[in-house]
Write a structure and sequence with these properties.
Keywords: Metal-binding, Zinc. The protein is about 0% helix and about 55% strand. By secondary structure, it is mainly β.
Length: about 300
């Protein structure tokens, strides 16, 4: 697979993933065979199911992929397949929706900032859907030359209007809700910080705190926090760049354990419906790692 991200575990045992470098959404069946679900073009990143069964897609616009030094072009860095530059034929960054027949429509290309301005999406990264049918979106930002755009956290309720609810964040990435939906967790890739936002109601922030920081590691002893998921007990699983693998925290922010992987570009993960199995996207090597009895693998008793 071409730089997989954002796995969704389905009831039939298959897993949906976005292929950012392939510009498509793919179904991976239990026997390892694959089936293309939709050609989104550009760079589909985070995906999630809406209550009506459709898929919402964070379309980041695309990139040029190749083998490059990571994390920096310095002695001791490693060579990985990764984004190495802007797309030659980019799409407009947007949220897309895919229906059961694979038809793709644009939901929006903009959001309403906290000051009331209508602004274009910069580089949508990840998305999670709440029980009311609303959804939270991180706009990951981008670097142009020596300038970097600051972005934040967005929410669309049942009216479908995407509004900014937190700004600024430092390259916001993974986003997930607590089991009772009273808290929202957001990963900042560059700082390795996991934010906890208390919700007074869907899309309304009532409190905020830095909950935890994922460890550094890998080449040059740096890294980042990528995708998130939360189990029914409130444990927070974070795809950990650099070290490679998944870091697990309690709802209180205590480090509980980790699962190692051999790809520093570990981008995301999800749990099976019964929560016994963990599916992890190893993007640079184009694989899905399946971890049976993930709690034992993470050293959690």
């Amino acid at each position: 697979m071409a730089f997989p991200e954002s796995p969704i575990a389905e009831a039939d045992g298959s897993v949906l993933v976005s292929e950012i470098a392939g510009g498509c959404i793919t179904r991976v069946r239990p026997d390892g065979t694959t089936e293309k679900v939709a050609d989104t073009g550009g760079g589909p990143n985070g995906i999630a199911r809406l209550p009506d069964g459709r898929l919402v897609v964070c379309q980041n616009g695309g990139s040029t992929f190749g083998v490059g030094s990571w994390p920096y072009d310095l002695p001791g860095a490693t060579k990985l397949f990764r984004p190495i530059g802007p797309a030659t034929a980019p799409l407009t960054p947007q949220l897309q929706v895919i229906d059961a027949d694979g038809r793709i429509e644009t939901l929006t290309t903009e959001f309403i900032a906290r000051n009331g301005q209508r602004l274009p999406l910069v580089r949508p990264s990840d998305v999670c859907v709440d029980s009311s049918g609303g959804y939270y979106v991180t706009d990951g930002g981008t670097i142009r030359g020596r300038s970097r755009e600051m972005t934040g956290l967005l929410y669309a309720g049942l009216d479908g209007v995407l509004r900014e609810i937190v700004y600024p964040l430092e390259m916001p990435n993974g986003v997930a809700l607590s089991p009772d939906e009273s808290k929202l967790y957001v990963a900042e890739t560059r700082t390795r910080r996991i934010w906890e936002f208390g919700l007074d109601e869907p899309g309304v922030i009532g409190s905020a705190r830095g909950l935890a920081t994922v460890p550094s590691g890998g080449p040059l002893n740096v890294g980042g926090a990528d995708g998130l998921c939360v189990d029914s007990a409130g444990r927070i699983l974070v795809a950990t760049l650099g070290t490679g693998g998944v870091t697990v925290f309690s709802a209180a922010g205590e480090l509980l354990g980790a699962i190692e992987a051999d790809d520093p570009m570990t981008t995301n993960m999800t749990l099976s419906p019964d929560e016994t199995r963990l599916y992890v996207t190893l993007a640079s090597s184009g694989r899905i790692l399946v971890v049976e009895d993930w709690m034992t693998a993470a050293g959690i008793r």
